[in-house]
Each structure stands twice: as structure tokens, then as C-alpha cells.
What we know:
Oligomer: heterodimer
Order of helices and strands of chain A: HEEHEEEEEEEE
CATH architecture of the largest domain in chain B: Sandwich
Number of domains of chain A: 2
Number of domains of chain B: 2
Strand order of the largest sheet of chain B: 1-2-8-4-5
Strand content of chain B: 25-35%
CATH class of the largest domain in chain A: Mainly Beta
CATH topology of the largest domain in chain B: Immunoglobulin-like
CATH architecture of the largest domain in chain A: Sandwich
Radius of gyration of chain B: 21 Å
Shape of chain B: globular
Largest interface: A-B, 63 and 65 residues
CATH class of the largest domain in chain B: Mainly Beta
Largest sheet of chain A: 6 strands, antiparallel
Radius of gyration of chain A: 20 Å
Structural class of chain B: alpha+beta
Number of strands of chain A: 10
Number of helices of chain B: 6
Distance between the termini of chain B: 76 Å
Helix content of chain B: 25-40%
Amino acid sequence: MRLLFGSCFTLLIAAAVGLGATWFTLTRGVAFGALTIGAWKAWPKSGSADIDPYARAMIARTGELPTGMGDGVAFYARTDDVGNAFDGRCTFSISGLTPTARYWTVTLYTPEGRLVANTVDRHGFTSEEIVRDNDGRFTITVAPLARPGNWLPTGGIEQFVLVWRLYDTPIGVAIRTTKEGPMPAIERKGC
Amino acid sequence: MVRGLLWILAAILLGGIVHLSTVLAMPQAAKQDAYSRLAPLTPVNAMVPLAPTKAGVEIMPFMDPAFATAVCRYDLTTGPLKLIAPVSQAYTSVTFYTRRSVAYYAINDRAAGRRTIELDLMTAAQHAEVPEDEEVTAADRLIIESPTTMGLIVLRALAPEPGLMPMARGALAAAKCGIQSQQ
């Protein structure tokens, strides 16, 4: 009787622990080998055959196709440089320089990876269309209401994710240090 | 007391096994992975342009809206596949994915080094059957080995600004993929 009770209890706990851990890791996005530059995180190996099992499971669940390693590398940011979570009702500025790449794009998504509808049909910028100042620096203002310059509308959503994609770049393949790969700084300006 | 602790230890160990096996089984069990999403939209072994990425009509999450995309959903059962893709003015890349969305190979226009990207895709078994002399005479022929019989080839062309999207889509429209005819 005691054995039966014990094994039932064990199996129940095992199922709860195992499934709970799987759910937690896949929804929270636990992946190994992140390349972190400021608030930006990339997983270059997720774009190759060396992808780890957690990233594989996550990609299968979300239905996305990762950026291939020979194509480019995608950096994700969910907070500013000091850790304030991205809130579409606040204003954030992204400024500075980018690592070496032939082209880059920056795109604003919902946490699920969808684009946010807005009146100006603007979801991001490419390296070619962004307005820069004389020394090549740029500032993007991420805000719910229209701003002069490079305005990226948030649509006022509660949470958003920024994805910076570098195409044809040595970052993630040859370079893994912060010094050689500066990423733009992110700062919250107000709510 | 000791017996109780042993039961808990066993539960945690078993829980670890459940966790690892569910993570490993997830790619096989996923019903909404990229391949499943594209299957109803794309024929097999043909290059098809996808509808522009717009808010509310995304086929997959985290697609780059600055790119025009075309997909060739392949099945190598009947023979190797040939891919011909003219490069656009800005930036063009080809990424190969397995049936389970693993990006096993990617190449861009500059690495391909020509005005057209030409590739042969085959399984390891089909590659072994390619006569050796043929491989030598066609030294500049790029052969990619697919780890799975089925998968996806995704062709992406950048529109550096929104007005250039028709140019990018036009470049993709000329891309072809199909099973090689027997010589």
C-alpha cells in the first residue's frame, strides 16, 4: 500500500516538475550561447546546424525561421540599457553606431513577433533609409505619438521587442567581443 | 523520513527525464512550425513568392518586413533539386532549412559571387551517386547536401527603402527551383 502510494506520488511530482520546466524554458526563451552587447542579445548558433535543443524546441513552437548564419545575425532587445522593460506607452531613444555589416534593419514587434499596425505603415528602418547626422550617427525615437526625425511608432502597445538584424556581417561568426561590435545605446526618455 | 526523501529524489530525477524528453520531442510534435504554416500556401518543388509582410497578415512570427520573400518547399525523393536565383540590386540571400526549421546552410549574393545564385541540392545518398568526373568538370557547381529529404529553401531580397519593394519582388519572380531532369 505504501509502495503504491509512494510511486503514484513520485510519478505525479515527476510529471509536474518535468512539464513545468519545459513550459517555463520554452515560454521564457532559455537558450544557450547568447552573444550580449548592451541590451542586445543574439544567438548566432540558432542559425546553423549547431542549434541547441532548447532553441530548436522554441522555434518549432513559435513557427519562426531563424536567420541563417551565412545570411546575418539578429539581435533582440526587450529592455533599455539599464533594464527598463519596453513599454509602448513610453518614449525610448536608440542612438549611436552599428557594427560592420553590408546592410542592417531594425524592426518593432509584439512579444509574439507580430508587426504593430500604424497609420504611417512604419515597422522599422533599414540602414539605407535612416536619417543620420554629419558624423554618421543616428537617433531613432520609439514613441506612441509622431516625432520629428526617425520616428518608430509603437502603436501604444504594452510590451514590444526590437530586433536588429545585421546582414553580411562578421559579427557572430568571427567577432564575439563587445569592443569590436558596438550596438546602439537604448535610453528611456519618459512615459 | 529517509524513505520519503528517496521518493522525492526519485521524483526529481524522473522529472528531469520528462523535461529533457519533452524538449527533444517538441520539434516533432509541433503543429504550427514554419513548414506546417507554409505547406498550404506553397506547392512542392516550385519557387513561390510570399505575400508582403504586413501587420495582421504575417505567415510566420519575426519576419523582416524590409524583405521580399520566396519559398521553395522541397522533397528530394524523386531526385536532386536545382535552384536558380538572380540577385537583386541590393542584397539577396538563400537559406536552407530542414523540415524541422533548422537553418543548415545560408549564402548571400556576395559569397555566391555572381549575378545569379545557382545551387544543386541533394541528399547525401544522391551526392554519393554523382559521377566523380562530372563533379570535376563542374568545379564551380555548388552542391549542397540536405540532411533531410524534405525542407524549405527561403530566398530573401532586400528593399533598402519601401519604394524599392517592387524591384525586390521582381528579382524574386525570376527565381526557379525544380527537380533536375535525368540526362
